[in-house]
Backbone:
């Protein structure tokens, strides 16, 4: 099982749109708005690392109004 936490920053005033888009991604297991340096923390789980990378690159990072992201892959 490949697990990653993705920290996201959204454009100012676009948090609710980003949150809706995040929750539409089936592979997202948990997503929370947070206070601090980042606006959202997202937990993703996939069967393989390749699947995880594909979802992060082709779905999460392409969400409109995301300013930046930081991906942390869990070591098993």
Residues:
């Amino acid at each position: 099982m490949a697990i990653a936490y993705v920290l996201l920053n959204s454009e100012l005033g676009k948090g609710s749109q980003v949150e809706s888009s995040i929750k539409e991604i089936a592979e997202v297991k948990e997503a929370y708005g947070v206070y601090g340096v980042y606006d959202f923390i997202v937990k993703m789980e996939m069967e393989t690392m390749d699947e995880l990378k594909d979802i992060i690159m082709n779905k999460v990072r392409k969400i409109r109004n995301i300013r930046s992201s930081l991906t942390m892959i869990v070591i098993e």
